[in-house]
Every structure is written in C-alpha cells, then in structure tokens.
C-alpha cells in the first residue's frame, strides 16, 4: 500500500505543472480559447516533455505509461483548465496501437500527428456503418462531439459492421467545428463512403479505452476541483463584508469544509480508478469512481461559484471556467446515472 | 501507487480473521448481528477473551500489554473486529483513560489502573458533558475543591455512556472557578463510582434503550492521588485525548458488514432503481472512505506522525455512512412487520442518529477542520 507517485511520475507531474504555470496561465489559456482553440506551441512542448509518447508502449518507442503514470499529468491539466485535446489523442493512440496499427506511432510520439477519438453520436448509440468490399472498408454516418476533431490528422472511429462494433482508422474526414461549453475545440465528423482501415479489437477494446478514459477524467476532475477549492478558500480569507473576512462566518466555513471533504473523497476514488485501470481494468470500481467524481464535481463547482458571490458568475474569473469544465467532466464518459445503472449490472 | 495490502499485511489479516472465526462466541456474534442488547457480562466476556489472547489493547506500549503492531495492522485488526460482528471494545478504559495515564499518569497510577483496565477488572466511563456544557465543554461547572488530602466534588455530568456498568469514571472538573481563562481552572480526576454521594439516573433514548445516564456528585470525596497531571492541566489532557486514537472513527469494517447484510436482507428492493441507486451512493462513499482512511494510514506510516486535524473527516463521513445504511435498512423493512428483527432494525435507525452528535458533533468536527486544516 502506497499512495505516492513514484519518482518518475512525480518529476513528470512537476515539470508539467511548471510549464503550465509559466506558459499556460489563465490569461494565456483564455487567449487560446478566444483564438484557434488549441496551441501548436503547447502541443510541441507536450511532445518534448514526452506526453504524446507516454501512452505508447516501449516496443514502439514510447514510455508504456498507464493510467497512474498519466494521473499526475491529468491533475495538472485539470488545475490549469488545459483545453488541448490531449485525452482524445491518448484514447485514439491507445486504441490504434492495441488495434494493431503501429506505423503512425513515431509521428504520434514526436507530436507531428494528432489523433482524435471519434465515438459519440447524436442519440447515444453507435450508428456509423462500415461496409467492406474486397479488402477495402468505407464508413457512412456522423460522429458528434469529437474533441480535437478540427485539428486531428487521423481519427479512430467506432462503427458497426452489421451487428459487430469495430474500430477503424480514418485519415481525412469532413469536420464541422464548434466549441464545447468549457471552451474546447470539438467537431461533428461526417463520413460519406470515407475510406477506413480496420483495426483489431472491437467491443472489448472500445470498453477498455472508455474505462481508461473514465479513470483519467476522474484524475483531471480532481485537479479542477482542487483549483476550485483552493480558489474558494482564498476568496473566503480575503473578501471582507461586515468588516470581517467572510470566512469568519460559520455558515460558509462548514460549506467550505464539505467541499474539502468531497475533494478528498473524490481523490481517493480517482486513485482507485487509475490503479484498477492499470491492473487489467475493473469496470465496477471505475463506475463507482465516476459516480463519486460526478457528484463531487457538481457539489464543488456549484458551491465554488456560490461562495464567490457575483464574482463567481463573472466570465473574468477562472472559477467560472472551472465550473464549466466540471459540468462537462461530470458527464463525460458516462454521467452519474449511467454509472449507477452500470454499477448495478456488474 | 499501490492500493493493495502487502503479502505480510494480508497474512496478518488472515490470522486475525481465522482467530475470530474460532474464538468469537456464536451467541455474541448473533446478538451483534441482530442488533440485540449487549449486557455488561457480554461486553466483559469478550474483553477478557481478547485480553487472554493479548489483543485487547494493541495501541499500548508493549511493556503494558500492547502488541507492537503498526498503524496499518491496528487498522486491519479493528476492521476485522467490526466485519466479524464482534462486540465493541468499550473505549473509555482501554482507549481513552489508558491513553491519558500512559501520557500523563504517575508510575503509581499506571501500575494501579492499567493492569485492571487490561484484564477487564474495572469498567470505565467518561464524565465530560454537563447539562450546560456540551460542545462548549470548557464552560463545565462541576466543582472539585481541595480540602486536605481530598477533592470534594459537587455537580452533574450528563450523557454518561454505560455509567450504570461502570466501576470508575474519569472526569473533567473545575478546581479553580476564579481564573479568568476558564480552561486553566480545569483538572482531570479519576473517581471510584462506589464513593458515597454519587447518584446515577438513567436517560432513556428514543429507541427505548438505557445506554446513557446523568451522574450526580454530592460532596463526593476523591483522594488527591487520583488527580492526573497537574491541577489546572485538565484541558491539556482533554485536548490530547481528543487528538488520540481517532483513526477508528470511520468504523469501516462494521459498515462493510452492514452493507453486506443490507444487500442480503433487502434483496427484493434491489430491483427498485430509486432505492438501489441510493444504496449505491452510500456504497461508493464507503469505498471512498476506506481509501481515504488508507491514505491517512499511509501518511502516518511514512511521517511517523499522528494524523492532522483533517482526520475529523473520517468521523463526519463514517457516521453519515452508518446513518445512511441504517436508514436504508429501516426502509427495507415491511412497515407492518412486528417480528423481533424488524423492530430491532427500526430501533437501530432511531439509535444511530446519535452518531453524528456524540464524540464531538459533526458540526464541531467541521469547526475543527475549518480552523486547523483550512485556516479559517
């Protein structure tokens, strides 16, 4: 039993945090959001720090990192509200490598190739169809809410060939870009007889990637919640009304304590989810974690805005952007209701 | 990061589990499992069984009978006791009074009291709360005025758990009512319950059980050698005790047993998604608390320091979970059922409301975290 990161994990998390506080402070992040929605410089830096190669196995030149190796990075990304489509890239990388397509990996590792995970569709179920003629596959249909789609060089796409869920690698596709409410670059991706390469794996691999990602958003959410708690605590200590810091009022103290407890309970579940994701996967634990993260994200985001008063509503303040991110993270890869139902089935 | 216990820790747990399977008497286990009343004899029989095995006071120094276990082993032991359905080890002697004596007692006091606590010869209770002094304990008024070789004690304690079983009571008393800083006038006194002038009156709680009492002191003469630490240092003792041995307040083993019991008992309810989802949320909180607890243990083991004030969250969450489970259990009973178990379950729901009030109400725990951990 040991809850520390190992030395490598800690060093990586520290260097990511240093980079982000130096080059990706909130004002810079807002510039990116108002501009292109992603930063080529940041991506290049991620590649240099080894983040793009982190999920790739050593056999293919990467670091063979699992969820716990990525956990500290995701927490740091959460604290800084990073908008770069890193997780989508990590998911697609994992699926692509495990699906048997290795030739793009050198480009993935050096940062020249960005991947996007294209799975969700309007209405929920996967309806994009795959058709085979000879050894050629083509896709038909539309994916929605694909994070990073407008800047992706390749997509890993889930599609149905008859009744069978399969994974495909697609180079070019038609993308309609939009922004999520938390300022991330996303897109609707349309396939019209689009050429695709079939990957191995199917349903099991899709579940693996989704659970892996669910564990990682737990870690990212912990980072955002930590920021929201720290920021709220700081506000309670500095904002004065009635001649005293508002943190002197017990009504607010107890609410702050409950936020702090929610954060610690959520952190415990993020540790559980990431460790279990690395030891062969454990859908029940990951669902339990996502339930807690969703509940804590709602609790902490709503309370952090309330305790900041009018300032919490303001576009200017980072805490309102943390609110948006937590609202999205609570639902990403299954909201509480979805995971409650799944937990009951497992 | 590794959330698993080591092979040695698992072997230790199995040893405890195996011993409990062989040595926890069936009748006691059944009483605990069916929420039945435990008599003084029941409690002391189990206490002596553990004492004979050498396991009744794991946290004590080895020279006084402690086991030398580390914090993780102690936690595993407590969790196994809870999970097995063992009667509780009543904390007032073994955990509380002993901790105070070990830290502040004279050699004579240690020799006189510790072996008797260990072997279950004396049953202890705690004299802290008074009618006007609950959360604001330092306002306590029970007076102990020194006259020669005695203190003469006058006043009243309340909510005294199991005073009607007790041979001894440890009390916070006011030895100097004149001091401006009221904490400085408080002392820590050990009082023999057989002393003339002590009257116990039962307070029946809403589940109908006699568990707590009022204790009245009317010119009770207590020898000065029963004073622990210096006169006027009682508040220091009380604060030490507050910070001591707070690692088992989560009651995780017991809650795990209740959860398993509930799932079995309420099987037909598991198809009701609204009820089941509420249960799942409690189960998730319990899982999170178990890991949070392990994180505290891991930190304590690495730093060799006692837990910080944030350990209060274990009490807050642990009691909320206990109440959540008893509430779901109560709701799973058929409201028309009048069998013994259904009635016991409903009474338990009533009784467990005390958990968020006793041992420092959850609001006081939040005050502690706000002040000590968050700096508010």
Can you give a write-up of this model?
Chain A has 346 residues and is α+β, with helices and mostly antiparallel strands. Chain A folds into three domains: 90 residues, Butyryl-Coa Dehydrogenase, subunit A, domain 1 (Orthogonal Bundle), CATH 1.10.540.10; 87 residues, Butyryl-CoA Dehydrogenase, subunit A, domain 2 (Beta Barrel); 141 residues, Butyryl-CoA Dehydrogenase, subunit A, domain 3 (Up-down Bundle). Helices cover 54% and strands 18% of the residues of chain A. In chain A, the strands form two sheets. In chain A, strands 1, 2, 3, 4, 5, 6 and 7 form a seven-stranded mixed sheet that branches. A two-stranded antiparallel ribbon of chain A has the order 8-9. Chain B has three domains: 83 residues, no CATH class; 110 residues, Butyryl-CoA Dehydrogenase, subunit A, domain 2, CATH 2.40.110.10; 128 residues, Up-down Bundle (Butyryl-CoA Dehydrogenase, subunit A, domain 3). The longest helix of chain B has 31 residues. The interface between A and B is large, with 41 and 41 residues.
The gist of it:
The complex is a heterodimer of chains A (346) and B (376). Chain A has 346 residues and is α+β, with helices and mostly antiparallel strands. Chain A folds into three domains: 7-87 and 102-110, Butyryl-Coa Dehydrogenase, subunit A, domain 1 (Orthogonal Bundle), CATH 1.10.540.10; 115-201, Butyryl-CoA Dehydrogenase, subunit A, domain 2 (Beta Barrel), CATH 2.40.110.10; 205-345, Butyryl-CoA Dehydrogenase, subunit A, domain 3 (Up-down Bundle).
The SSE string of chain B, one letter per element, is HHHHHHEEEEEEEEHHHHHH
Find the CATH superfamily of the largest domain in chain A. Answer: Butyryl-CoA Dehydrogenase, subunit A, domain 3
Any idea of the CATH topology of the largest domain in chain B? Answer: Butyryl-CoA Dehydrogenase, subunit A, domain 3
Order of strands across the biggest sheet of chain B?
1-4-5-8
Largest sheet of chain A: 7 strands, mixed
Shape of chain A: globular
* Gross CATH architecture of the largest domain in chain A: Up-down Bundle
Roughly how many Å apart are the termini of chain A?
Answer: 26 Å
Largest sheet of chain B: 4 strands, mixed
The chain-level structural class of chain A is alpha+beta
- Rg of chain A, rounded, reads 20 Å
* Topology, number of strands of chain B: 8
Element pattern of chain A in H and E:
HHHHHHEEEEEEEHEEHHHHH
Supply the CATH class of the largest domain in chain B: Mainly Alpha
How much of the sequence lies in strands of chain A comes to 15-25%
Q: What is the rounded Rg of chain B?
A: 21 Å
From the 3D structure, determine the CATH topology of the largest domain in chain A.
Butyryl-CoA Dehydrogenase, subunit A, domain 3
Our count of domains of chain B comes out at: 3
């Amino acid at each position: 039993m040991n809850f520390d990161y190992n030395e490598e994990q800690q060093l990586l998390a520290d260097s990511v945090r240093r980079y982000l506080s130096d080059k990706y402070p909130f004002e810079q992040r807002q510039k990116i959001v108002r501009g292109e929605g992603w930063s080529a410089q940041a991506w290049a830096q991620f590649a240099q720090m080894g983040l793009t190669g982190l999920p790739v196995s050593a056999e293919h030149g990467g670091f063979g990192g699992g969820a716990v190796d990525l956990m500290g990075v995701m927490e740091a990304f959460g604290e800084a509200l990073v908008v770069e489509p890193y997780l989508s890239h990590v998911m697609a990388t994992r699926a692509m490598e495990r699906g048997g397509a290795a030739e793009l990996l050198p480009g993935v590792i050096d940062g020249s190739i960005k991947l996007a995970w294209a799975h969700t569709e309007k209405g929920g179920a996967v309806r994009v169809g795959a058709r085979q003629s000879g050894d050629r596959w083509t896709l038909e249909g539309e994916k929605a809410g694909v994070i990073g789609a407008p800047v992706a060089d390749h997509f890993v796409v889930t599609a149905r060939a008859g009744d069978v869920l399969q994974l495909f690698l697609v180079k070019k596709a038609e993308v309609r870009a939009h922004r999520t409410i938390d300022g991330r670059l996303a897109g609707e991706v349309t396939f019209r007889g689009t050429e695709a390469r079939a990957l191995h794996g199917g349903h099991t691999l899709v579940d693996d990637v989704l659970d892996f990602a669910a564990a990682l958003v737990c870690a990212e959410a912990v980072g955002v919640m930590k920021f929201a708690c720290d920021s709220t605590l700081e506000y309670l200590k500095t904002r004065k009304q009635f001649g005293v810091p508002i943190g002197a009022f017990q009504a607010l103290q107890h609410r702050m304590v409950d936020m702090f407890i929610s954060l610690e309970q959520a952190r415990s579940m993020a540790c559980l989810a990431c460790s279990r994701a690395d030891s062969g996967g454990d859908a029940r634990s990951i669902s339990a974690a996502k339930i807690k993260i969703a509940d804590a994200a709602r609790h902490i985001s709503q309370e952090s805005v309330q305790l900041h008063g009018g300032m919490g509503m303001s576009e200017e303040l980072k805490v309102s952007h943390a609110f948006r991110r937590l609202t999205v993270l609570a639902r990403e890869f299954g909201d509480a209701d979805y995971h409650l139902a799944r937990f009951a089935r497992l | 990061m590794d959330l698993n216990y080591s092979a040695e820790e698992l072997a230790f747990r199995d040893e405890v589990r195996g011993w409990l399977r062989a040595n926890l008497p069936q009748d006691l286990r059944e009483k605990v499992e069916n929420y039945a009343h435990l008599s003084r004899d029941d409690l002391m029989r189990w206490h002596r069984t553990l004492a004979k095995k050498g396991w009744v006071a794991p946290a004590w120094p080895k020279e006084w009978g402690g086991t030398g276990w580390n914090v993780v082993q102690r936690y595993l032991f407590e969790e196994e006791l809870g999970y097995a359905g063992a009667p509780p080890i009543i904390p007032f002697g073994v955990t509380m009074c002993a901790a105070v004596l070990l830290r502040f007692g004279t050699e004579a006091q240690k020799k006189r009291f510790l072996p008797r606590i260990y072997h279950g010869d004396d049953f202890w209770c705690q004299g802290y709360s008074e009618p006007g002094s609950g959360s604001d304990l330092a306002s306590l008024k029970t007076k102990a005025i020194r006259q020669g070789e005695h203190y003469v004690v006058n006043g009243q304690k309340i909510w005294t758990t199991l005073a009607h079983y007790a041979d001894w009571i440890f009390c916070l008393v006011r030895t100097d009512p004149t001091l401006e800083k009221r904490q400085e006038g408080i002392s820590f006194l050990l009082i023999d319950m057989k002393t003339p002038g002590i009257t116990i009156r039962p307070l029946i709680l809403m589940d109908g059980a006699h568990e707590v009492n009022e204790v009245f002191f009317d010119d009770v003469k207590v020898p000065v050698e029963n004073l622990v630490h210096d006169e006027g240092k009682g508040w220091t003792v009380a604060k030490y005790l507050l910070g001591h041995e707070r690692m088992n307040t989560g009651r995780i083993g017991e809650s795990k047993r209740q959860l398993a019991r509930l799932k079995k008992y309420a099987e037909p309810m598991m198809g009701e998604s609204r009820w089941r989802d509420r249960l799942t949320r409690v189960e998730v909180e319990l899982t999170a608390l178990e890991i949070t607890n392990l994180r505290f243990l891991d930190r304590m083991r690495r730093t060799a320091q006692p837990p910080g004030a944030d350990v209060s969250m274990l009490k807050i969450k642990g009691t909320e979970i206990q109440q959540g489970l008893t509430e779901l259990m109560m709701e799973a009973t058929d409201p028309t059922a009048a069998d013994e178990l259904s009635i016991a379950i409903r009474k338990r729901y009533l009784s467990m409301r005390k958990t968020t009030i006793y041992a420092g109400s959850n609001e006081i725990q939040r005050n502690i975290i706000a002040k000590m951990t968050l700096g508010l």
